[in-house]
């Protein structure tokens, strides 16, 4: 235990002393994000792949947030998987705008990354490919849980899981209401805690039409 926490502290301090500047960051913010995720893994933070996704209920104009796992970055787009009938799924599907907000927070490293972008569904084939890579318990769970709907008791879940286990055996198909989304980032902000509250904030803005990135520093 002592060895692990000493190691974590050493790594943490190494990153905390790193400055973030327009020159030191990667010109591609997705690469910079990947670097920070790798450093979060190296420094053994809890849940380095967790990100907070915020959606808005279009009719009520009420925002809501929840944690999901980043399950891959493909062609600079961030991917996660969920139930399309969940609260987030319904809000994404019914929204007139495809705008979305994502946040990564690494408390131990005093780092935060804000991402704003647009969201769209992954293809059925891509969702199948990811679903098929999951352990059987997770596959059955996707059928058993009508995510975000009211249930009478926990027993309902246990009974549904058993029912689908009997129904499918070893070959569990992807539920049609379960799959992936990908987020195409438009803006990023990397925040690094620094001494005396003089934190570093580096912002990337996508410049159309050539999709290059403009980088600037903003005040903490
Ligand atoms: C660390 C962590 C990772 C999670 N990963 C996912 C995920 O990848 N997909 C998902 O649907 N829910 C995930 N959840 C659960 C969500 O936070 C949330 O409870 C669920 O998706 C229902 O949200 P909604 O009612 O807003 O749709 C995760 C929760 C935590 C704490």
Summed up, what is this model?
The chain has helices at residues 2-16, 29-42, 87-94, 124-132, 136-144, 154-168, and strands at 50-57, 62-69, 72-74, 77-83, 99-106, 111-121, 178-192, 200-207, 212-217.
Description:
A hairpin with a 2-residue loop joins strand 3 (72-74) and strand 4. It is built from 6 helices and 9 strands, in the order ααββββαββαααβββ. The protein is globular. It has helices at residues 2-16, 29-42, 87-94, 124-132, 136-144, 154-168, and strands at residues 50-57, 62-69, 72-74, 77-83, 99-106, 111-121, 178-192, 200-207, 212-217. Strands 1, 2, 3, 4, 5, 6, 7, 8 and 9 form a 9-stranded antiparallel sheet that branches. The two termini are 35 Å apart. It has a single domain (2-217), classed as Electron Transport, Fmn-binding Protein, Chain A (Pnp Oxidase, Chain A). Helix 5 (136-144) crosses helix 6. 32% of the residues lie in helices and 34% in strands. It has 220 residues and is an alpha+beta fold. The model has no long low-confidence stretch (mean pLDDT 94). Flavin mononucleotide binds next to strand 2, strand 4 and helix 3.
User: Which whole number gives the mean pLDDT?
Assistant: 94
Structural class: alpha+beta
- First-residue to last-residue Cα separation: 35 Å
Give the tally of structural domains.
1
Spans with pLDDT under 50 lasting ≥5 residues? none
Mass-distribution shape:
globular
* Total count of strands: 9
**Sheet of most strands:** 9 strands, antiparallel
Task: Report the portion of residues in β strands.
Answer: 25-35%
Pattern of helices and strands:
HHEEEEHEEHHHEEE
Which superfamily, in CATH terms, is the homologous superfamily?
A: Electron Transport, Fmn-binding Protein, Chain A
Residues in helices, as a percent range? 25-40%
CATH architecture: Roll
Instruction: Give the quaternary arrangement of the chains.
Output: single chain
Tally of helical segments: 6
CATH topology: Pnp Oxidase, Chain A
By CATH reckoning, the class would read Mainly Beta
Which molecules other than protein and nucleic acid are bound?
flavin mononucleotide
Rounded Rg: 20 Å
